[in-house]
Amino acid sequence: MLADKNILLGITGSIAAYKCAILVRLLVKQGANVKVIMTAAAQQFITPLTLSTLSKNPVLTSYADDNGNWNSHVDLGLWADAMLIAPASANTIAKMAHGQSDNLLTATYLSARCPVIVSPAMDLDMYQHPSTLNNIERLRSYGNLIIPATYGELASGLVGEGRMAEPEDIIHFLDNQVFNTKHEKLAGKKVLISAGPTQEPIDPVRYISNHSTGKMGFALAQQLLNLGATVTLIKGPTSQNPTFNGSINIIEVGTAAEMYTAAIQEFAGKDITIMAAAVADYTPAEVADKKIKKEGQDIELHMVKTQDILAELGRNKAKGQLLVGFALETNDEEKNAKAKLKKKNLDLIVLNSLGDEGAGFGHNTNKVTLIDNKGTKKQFELKSKTAVAIDIINAIVEQL
Ligand code: CTP
After folding, report:
1. What percentage of the chain reaches a pLDDT higher than 70?
2. What are residue 43's phi and psi, to 5 degrees?
3. CA angle, corner 178, sides to 172 and 180, nearest 5?
4. In this structure, what are the phi and psi dihedrals at residue 179, rounded to the nearest 5 degrees?
5. What does the alpha-carbon distance between residue 129 and residue 184 come to, in Å, rounded to a whole number?
6. Which of 60, 246, 259, 387 has the most CB atoms in a 10 Å sphere around its CB?
7. 389 near 221, Cβ under 8 Å?
8. Measured between alpha carbons, how far is 400 from 389 in angstroms, rounded to an integer?
């Protein structure tokens, strides 16, 4: 999608600027024409020479070049098919939100008529500060697209959200969300997503659960929000407290039975439903009303089957409703996934195998195989859950 596209990359003052060497390299490899604008602060992190060599174009740092020629921000803004600001520092985001244009980058931003994509990078407290959050929200209200910062270790040594998205993910975003016209089909679509585990109580202090963190479902929710879908998220009790860019309806549930009730209630009228939750298959037959005391040598817990939510949704599916399930397998993966697709009347199943390193519960990455109801199978490499979410969305769009 990026071949022959004119990409204007604005780089601001953040340690993540070092990733721009790879970003520019990837853009050029995809056939894009790349011009780079750097702020003064950006040049303290990476040299213009590195980026002019990789982009095969002079790097622009001020309104005039060394020979006294004017670098027209208006011409640059008109040249670009997309303007990407990566990394976008808190300072530049604030300037963009308020229309300040005291350097070539921000003046060009105000002149650009093309889609503008902002990939923030900063330390976690700066990223969480209400003023930054408000500024990002403002940029979104201007129609700019935001690639949320990711979670991980930051240059300060703190751990949290604030890392610039990886160059591969930025390319994926441009490919799929800026230049992929097929995704327009998702605007206004009503989507229901379940994510996370369920907790089945044994007594007032104990429960049975699983290792699901909900990350895959949250990534799907965020990507669908970015594409203009209206998203309802049924969220099981996870240790993660996800933050979303954009407005989302979150329904918190605890047990499989609660998730069942919420899903059945919400299902009608949804265009797309994705069951990414790891629902308990069995629940204690009785919940003790007092803490079970440590008495005998053994204890027996009688468990009964929960309702299969996805299968019930499959039975009630109306024409035009698209239903997506997950299958987490440890053996006979493909055979089991195909059987679930058929039995639960699904349109698409996302298979992940616990045998694959870096895939499944808790990781920020996943490795999936997608199988649709016509038997088409697509296998993907290990990639970030954000990139996996986009692959899943692409497969959904093909069926719309
Ligand atoms: N699922 C569900 N309700 C359940 C159990 C599972 O809706 N009570 C959904 C999951 O959200 C997932 C799909 O069914 O989308 C497959 O879940 P999985 O645990 O892999 O399969 P099961 O059908 O539970 O079969 P098994 O545990 O025997 O593999």
Report:
1. 100
2. -70, -10
3. 80
4. -110, 5
5. 32
6. 259
7. no
8. 17
Ligand 1 site, CB within 6 A: 256, 275, 277, 279, 281, 306, 308-310, 325-328, 340
Can you give the pTM of this predicted structure? 0.72
State the pLDDT confidence band at 350, using cuts at 50, 70 and 90: very high
Residue 293 DSSP code: P
Tell which atom from ligand 1 comes closest to the C-alpha of 325: 15
Determine how β-strand 33-38 pairs with β-strand 365-366: unpaired
pLDDT at 302: 97
Catalytic residues: 210
Q: What angle do CA 346, 239, 336 make, to 5 degrees?
A: 25
Reply yes or no on whether the pLDDT at 359 is more than 80: no
Q: How far is the CA of 188 from the centre of ligand 1 (A)?
A: 28
The structural domains of the chain, ordered by start, are 6-178 (3.40.50.1950), 190-399 (3.40.50.10300)
Centre of ligand 1 to C-alpha 280, Å, is 8
Confidence band of 143 (pLDDT split at 50, 70, 90):
confident
